């Protein structure tokens, strides 16, 4: 298996000697409940990891990892290419050590990590899609370390689920001047993005960390997304999908009919994803199903917007902003049939684009501030036993 990684998001953290996204864990019990809810969606019961081996790629500062540590795996290996992040992991693990788990941190990029050991549980959050040019290759590298019968957890994203993030990052670029220092940009953007975080229930990211991670840091210019269907298809030769968050995997079949050629876990999951793409656009909106034609159009418009923002970032030509304005307006017209909240948020963003096009100050977009997609989706997989 070969792959070439031309650029990684972690390079940004290494360059600036920072750790990705510090979480507010002052209310640790509530923070752990949120992680437990994620694991519940993924089919992971609290006792699953006790006495097992665990491997995590890209733990960042380690705030999510201390919940996994609390489940008392026998061995827990954490791999990251950013030394600053690993130092934070070591400090947190020393503070929250449980007297049971043998932990080890390894400074390495995913594709360079090597061990003969295979693990009961492997997790990789917010590292693979969009963070480099070859997510399929990196996904295979991660999945290779799961033992047969073991559990894999990875994250996915697509242009629909990531639209709010794409527009938010574009807003950040339009609010500030390109020649500003990073600190100057943070100072100008802080009131706008604090408003975004305040409007999002459950957000526990500090605003400056959010801006550094999601606004100042641009995803690699050739970074590629990896949707739920992309991820399942890439792993279907060795893995069966098990759980998801959001938990959209519904199967009404009688269990006695699910065997042999009738299992089809992966294909059914892809079909459910395709029918629910619109529900990834705005976390406030949950629909049973919309027409396939409109789902396809929503995906096309979001993809157009994503590509246009990358082109604008390269040479800042106004024609790309005008194209984005047209696509966002069309998307708002579709959204108003199903969710007025979503349509109002999108039209509010158009108001910001109009201000930029006419060289006016960026307005206070309260309705857009409440717009948040289901940016990252989680999937869990079980690695099949070799039956040959």
Short key terms for the protein model shown above:
about 400 residues, alpha/beta, Rossmann fold, 2 domains, seven-stranded mixed β-sheet, about 45% helix, globular
Can you describe what's shown?
With 388 residues, the protein is α/β, with parallel strands linked by helices. The protein has two domains: 175 residues, Vaccinia Virus protein VP39 (Rossmann fold), CATH 3.40.50; 140 residues, no CATH class. It contains 14 helices and seven strands. It has a seven-stranded mixed β-sheet with strand order 3-2-1-4-5-7-6, sandwiched between helices. α4 links the parallel β2 and β3. α6 packs parallel to α11 and α9 packs antiparallel against α10. The longest helix is centred in the last third of the chain and has 24 residues. The protein is globular, with a radius of gyration of 21 Å. The mean pLDDT is 90.
